[in-house]
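Input record, target 12 of the design panel.
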């Protein structure tokens, strides 16, 4: 299994991510011999539990993130932030979760950008 590292980056308070900033990052990557590759897209979903019975609500994760990566379309990853845990599942888990109705997608964020190859590493911006 390849190693993946996701850097959660946020701009400083009061600043936003702009096209100029992304262009500067791309120039930096290209200056260290990064080879520009294809565009990529991914969707990050924020899940919240559907709690019908509040008595056992503490037994389940309060919320978690789900993401599919374009280079592994048969896999789906869950990030349980409170437990600092990443779970890997088959992509059919999304259908199972819809049928069970124990968790619902509250927010879905679409990401897209450009991929760079840096030797053995891939960098997605």
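The sequence produced for target 12 reads:
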């Amino acid at each position: 299994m390849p190693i993946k590292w996701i850097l959660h980056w946020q701009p400083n308070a009061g600043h936003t991510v702009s096209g100029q900033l992304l262009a500067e990052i791309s120039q930096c990557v290209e200056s260290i011999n990064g080879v520009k590759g294809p565009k990529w897209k991914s969707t990050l979903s924020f899940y919240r539990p559907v709690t019908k019975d509040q008595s056992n609500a503490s037994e389940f994760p309060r919320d978690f993130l789900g993401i599919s990566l374009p280079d592994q379309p048969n896999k789906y990853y869950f990030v349980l932030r409170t437990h600092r845990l990443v779970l890997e599942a088959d992509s059919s888990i999304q259908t199972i979760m819809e049928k069970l109705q124990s968790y619902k997608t509250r927010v879905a964020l679409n990401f897209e950008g450009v991929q760079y190859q840096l030797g053995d590493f891939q960098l997605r911006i």
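The chain has two helices and six strands.
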